[in-house]
């Protein structure tokens, strides 16, 4: 595949260059909740950044570090430690299927495969390594990934679709769930 100038521009685009005064004001407001140690605002800021931009690039790490008077490594180690944070873009809708014991035994793996099928993602594509974007549909609409226990073991198998928890999912119900998300 040949890279177009638009692709090249997209890859060199820095998220920090897109920070608006309003976005920065919202960040400053979050920081005020941590008067004792600004460092404690690191995770809330990373969540806010990822919700806004979809993932956290190098410029985001540097920007947040500078905002909190920290070294970029202090932020980088959080982004690489917590699987929740991504260093690459994922689909607009992220389907996180629990694969821990209760869900695995109740059919979580089959549910995950059905989500892949219904969204046009190769079910054999498993991603490894923190920060890497999960398998994403060609149209960029969906990503599907496994996560560990979502604290809803009594209603296994479960999946978190963006911010909504879906419980007792049967493989047969998956196409209908995906249809509603389109
Ligand atoms: S094992 Fe799936 S929610 Fe706990």
UniProtKB/TrEMBL annotation:
Sites binding [2Fe-2S] cluster sit at 98, 103, 149, 153
Q: Which residues form a coiled coil?
A: none
Question: Which molecular-function annotations from GO does this UniProt entry contain?
Answer: 2 iron, 2 sulfur cluster binding; metal ion binding; NADH dehydrogenase activity
Keywords in UniProt for this one? 2Fe-2S, Iron, Iron-sulfur, Metal-binding
Which cofactors does this protein require?
[2Fe-2S] cluster
Which Gene3D superfamilies does the record cross-reference, listed alphabetically? Glutaredoxin, NADH-quinone oxidoreductase subunit E
Does the record's keyword annotation contain Protein transport?
no
Cofactor, free-text remark: Binds 1 [2Fe-2S] cluster.
State the similarity comment: Belongs to the complex I 24 kDa subunit family.
Protein known as: NADH-quinone oxidoreductase subunit E
């Amino acid at each position: 595949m040949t890279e177009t100038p638009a692709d090249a521009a997209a890859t060199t685009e820095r998220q920090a260059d897109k920070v608006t005064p309003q976005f920065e004001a919202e960040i400053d407001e979050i920081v005020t909740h941590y008067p004792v140690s600004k460092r404690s605002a690191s995770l809330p800021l990373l969540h806010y950044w990822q919700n806004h931009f979809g993932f956290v690039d190098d410029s985001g790490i540097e920007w947040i570090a500078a905002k909190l008077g920290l070294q970029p490594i202090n932020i980088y180690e959080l982004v690489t430690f917590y699987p929740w944070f991504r260093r690459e873009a994922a689909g607009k809708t992220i389907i996180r299927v629990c694969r821990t014991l209760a869900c695995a035994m109740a059919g979580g793996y089959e549910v995950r495969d059905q989500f892949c099928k219904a969204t046009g993602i190769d079910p054999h594509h498993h991603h490894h390594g923190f920060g890497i974007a999960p398998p994403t549909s060609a149209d960029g609409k969906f990503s599907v990934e496994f996560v560990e226990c979502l604290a809803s073991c009594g209603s296994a198998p479960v999946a978190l679709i963006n911010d909504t928890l879906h419980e007792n999912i049967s493989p047969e119900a998956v196409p209908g769930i995906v249809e509603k998300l389109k």
